[in-house]
Specification:
With about 400 residues, this protein is an alpha+beta fold. It is built from twelve helices and 20 strands. The structure holds P-hydroxybenzoic acid (PHB).
């Protein structure tokens, strides 16, 4: 098989890259080790920055998003039994959208296939080769046969546990990471969310987040120990804990729990995001804790930069944008890292004691929800820093 860009991974990054390249007249093939059904069903964080929603709409994949996404003007932060509103619309004139990553993936798969795109699902043993030279290759097994894609560039969009990042030659990469001493227990529940907007709760028993996927479908999270076993959380315990941490700021409707899982929390960045003609994008290059809701947004920013750089190379032989890819992405990535780390440390409980740091944390939340300057900074980062 021969194509211009071989893409490993059919998540939001790989599929959007393939879509943007197609619009620029550049061919690509996407390989993915999971099934199409798995990719379309996996619930992941669902918050979309303003410009990402606009990019989906402007590139013709936003039709269902415009119909079904929930538009939010701001968020609530709750502490000391009070929910304080941060009104993005009023502060910076921007909104954000709730639209689960699996919906983005579903829409992009449908669109790529309708446009004649090639996505090979359930490939096995994918590996990347010769990306230091002019003819990179992706090898894998598909439907029982050994296959090879010859291409000009490889997009490594295969997530944190993927094969692309570890394929960089020894000594090229520096990794930066932080593992947090807690995780999130996440549930999807057949019940209306307590408010139309998200509520981030700081509570002495730990953090909780009240999000949603629809008017009668809640997505709720609890801070738990990092190695927690979801089986230790029978439904009644989850509801009792959510209600306690909501602190009475809204009534909480209970419902049938449809899904339950533990999300580990870590911050990770690899530098550079490129080795030869292999370019990493999204979770393959960086992970953020979900508190800042930046994961999919950073992935979309990467592939926008990458598709433009590849287009400039194919159409006018320019090398500069490709050469700058890593630096261009990393300046946004580190700002996203900083914001995600900051939201995480501010809103989680780090100790059971009312010690210096806990007092400082409460003062910080009080300040961030009371000062217009501080709220504006939060709003600007949460709704998405401007794209260069
Ligand atoms: C979600 O709806 O899944 C969600 C929203 C905001 C976050 C994290 C997760 O910060």
């Amino acid at each position: 098989m021969r194509t211009q860009v071989g893409i490993v991974g059919a998540g939001p990054a790989g599929l959007m890259l393939s879509h943007l390249l197609h619009l620029a007249g550049i061919s690509s093939i996407v390989v993915e080790d999971r099934s199409r059904a798995y990719c379309e069903a996996r619930v992941r964080a669902g918050l979309m920055e303003n410009w990402v929603a606009r990019m989906l709409i402007d590139t013709g994949v936003g039709e269902r998003l415009q119909r079904e996404a929930m538009v939010h003007d701001g968020i609530y932060i709750s502490f000391k039994g009070e929910a304080r509103h941060i009104d993005f619309q009023k502060l910076i004139g921007k909104q954000v959208f709730i639209y689960d990553q699996k919906e983005v993936v579903t829409d992009l798969i449908a669109r790529r296939l309708a446009d004649g795109g090639q996505i090979l699902f359930e490939v096995e043993n994918a590996s990347v080769h010769e990306f230091d030279g002019r003819s990179p290759k992706i090898r894998f097994r598909h439907q029982g046969r050994a296959e090879e894609i010859e291409c000009d560039f490889i997009g490594g969009c295969d997530g944190f546990h993927g094969i692309c990042r570890p394929s960089f030659p020894a000594g090229v990469r520096s990794d930066y990471d932080r593992v947090y001493p807690f995780g999130w227990l996440g549930i999807l529940s057949d019940s209306p969310p307590p408010d139309d907007e998200l509520i981030y709760c700081f509570h002495e028993r730990g953090f909780a987040l009240f999000s949603m996927r629809g008017p009668d479908l809640s997505r709720l999270y609890l801070q738990v120990p990092p190695d927690e076993d979801a089986d230790r959380w029978p439904d009644a315990r989850i509801w009792d804990e959510l209600e306690t941490r909501l602190g009475g700021v809204r009534p909480l409707a209970r419902g049938k729990i449809l899904q339950k899982g533990i999300t580990p929390m870590r911050s990770f960045v690899t530098e550079p995001m490129q080795s030869g003609r292999l370019f990493l994008a999204g979770d393959a290059a960086h992970i953020v804790p979900p508190t800042g809701a930046k994961g999919m947004n950073l992935a979309m920013a990467d592939v926008r930069v990458l598709s433009r750089a590849i287009e400039a190379h194919c159409k006018s032989g320019r090398e500069d944008l490709l050469k700058d890819y890593s630096a261009t992405c990393l300046s946004r990535v580190w700002k996203g890292q900083r914001f995600s780390w900051w939201m995480t440390q501010m809103l989680h409980r780090h100790s059971d004691e009312m010690d210096f740091d806990t007092k400082r944390q409460i003062a910080e939340i009080d300040y961030v929800t009371g000062s217009e300057a501080a709220m504006t900074s939060l709003a600007e980062n949460y709704a998405g820093l401007p794209m260069a």
